[in-house]
Amino acid sequence: MLTLKQIRDDKAFAIERLSVKGVDAAPIIDKIETLDDKRKSIKAELDANLSEQNSIAKEIGQLFKQGKGDEAEAAKVKVNTLKESSKTLESQLKEAEEQLNALIVTLPNFPHSSVPHGKTAEDNVIVRKGGAEPNLPADALPHWELARKYDIIDFELGVKLTGAGFPVYKGQGSALQRALISFFLDCNTAAGYTEVMPPLMVNEASGFGTGQLPDKEGQMYHVNLDNFYLIPTAEVPVTNIYRDVILNESDFPIKMTAYTPCFRREAGSYGKDVRGLNRLHQFDKVEIVQISHPSVSYEALDGMVAHVEGIVQKLGLPYRIVRLCGGDMSFTSALTYDFEVYSAAQKRWLEVSSVSNFESFQANRLKLRYRDANKKMQLAHTLNGSSLALPRIVAALLENNQTPDGIRIPEVLVPYTRFDMIK
Predict the structure, then answer these.
(1) DSSP characters for 48-117?
(2) Is CB count within 10 Å lower at the N or C end of the chain?
(3) Residue 37 CB: number of other CB atoms within 10 A?
């Protein structure tokens, strides 16, 4: 959530920055200014009212001591009148604050100055590429056909048990899933991330804290009776560990990693581009989260990008890193790099990771602060990245490594799978 200071200190800058995300913020900011002025006016009147109450209350005792009972009684009547007025002002102040906050939370985060202008993925900027695209024969199979051929993923059984987008992994397919999860976690913990195992459901406060609510409410599975939400990513519970926490500067950096299943409704996702593992309602993902001092959060972001890149390189997958344009960025992000791997049989790039810096946007919602050298409270910066999401990694591994004898397992995974070929 943006702060009032960010919005009001330089209105023109706020409007320009949000326009990069395709948001016409001027009308909303005008309303925010009007409401904030109203809030300040009510607050000033309330403060003056309370001050006068206190002053008169102190006089009443003296008036009684001086034998001025009538004046004292008149003063008591005035205090009671002021109290009633204060109640009305407090109600008006609360209403103004609620209206103000309701408007502020509709504004997305400011994009970083390096974010390119653009509306869709076509406007994203390729930062760099790595790895060699495999040269597969013309009859190479897409991963959903390989899954059927080797009986390692059963999409139809998933439909029977739950519905489309809930595949069942079997045999060597299950082993490959476990291997990837363990490999990713080992890479992350070796890099200094502390592993945590969070709940798979969160409350409304947690969803608001990281920005999924109210922005993505329709994309999350809601457990109505208990008002819980199935997590769309481990980012939500892991980052919320530090909701309402005050840190010291010496606590930075805080680095956490977690494996969780993720649940996304993905409403409106249809067509050939969502076939097989390309887009699921339930999938496995390993996440990395950092809580950083603001002065070094972009260094932390660069480090996270390099870390994810190293993992993709170890898997031997051709990849590219893209900087997202304003129109393709999330509501909460200030700067996002996407990792895409090349799926040789589908002949297309598949997104497997997003690594983002949210600056203080989430921290303001979370009330995640730290004491600076002068003991003044400041907002921390939060970052997160997929390290990695499994479905499209699996799709690319199956397609790119298919041979006449089976599907070759990358060397780094063999100690985890305990087999080097899917046959």
Answers:
(1) HHHHHHHHHHHHHHHHHHTT-HHHHHHHHHHHHHHHHHHHHHHHHHHHHHHHHHHHHTTS-PPPPTTPPP
(2) C
(3) 12
pLDDT given at position 350: 97
Angle at 50 (CA atoms; ends 44, 56), nearest 5 degrees: 135
- Show the tokens assigned to 305: 């990008």
Helix (H, G, I), strand (E, B) or coil at 293: coil
Residue 394: C-alpha distances to residues 184, 305, 411 (Å): 13, 20, 15
CA–CA gap between residue 263 and residue 283 (Å, rounded): 7
Is there a contact between 260 and 158 (Cβ–Cβ < 8 Å)?
no
CA-wise closest residue to 188 among 180, 178, 198, 200: 180
Which has the closest alpha carbon to 285: 402, 187, 177?
A: 177
Taking alpha carbons only, the member of 406, 411, 402 closest to residue 421 is: 406
| Run of H or E residues at 43 | helix 26-65
Whole-prediction pTM value?
0.93
Render pLDDT for 73-123 as a digit per residue (tens, 0 to 9).
888 899 999 999 999 999 999 999 999 999 999 999 999 999 999 999 999
Q: Looking up tokens 């805080």, which residue turns up?
A: 254
- Residue 357's DSSP bridge partners are 335, 383
List strands edge to edge, sheet with 201-202: 201-202, 228-230, 222-223
Reference 252, options 300, 292, 288, 289; nearest CA is 292
Distance CA 377, CA 298 (A): 21
Phi and psi at 278, nearest 5°, equal: -65, -35
Q: Which two tokens stand for residue 29?
A: 């900011």
Yes or no: say if 53 and 86 are a contact pair by the CB < 8 Å rule: yes
Ranges of residues in the chain with a pLDDT under 50 are: none
Strand pairing category for 125-130 and 319-323 = antiparallel
Query: 214 preceded by cis ω (within 30°)?
Result: yes
CB 382 within 8 Å of CB 289: yes
Q: pLDDT digits over 156-189, tens only?
A: 999 999 999 999 999 999 999 999 999 999 999 9
Positive or negative, the CA dihedral 29, 31, 34, 35 is: negative
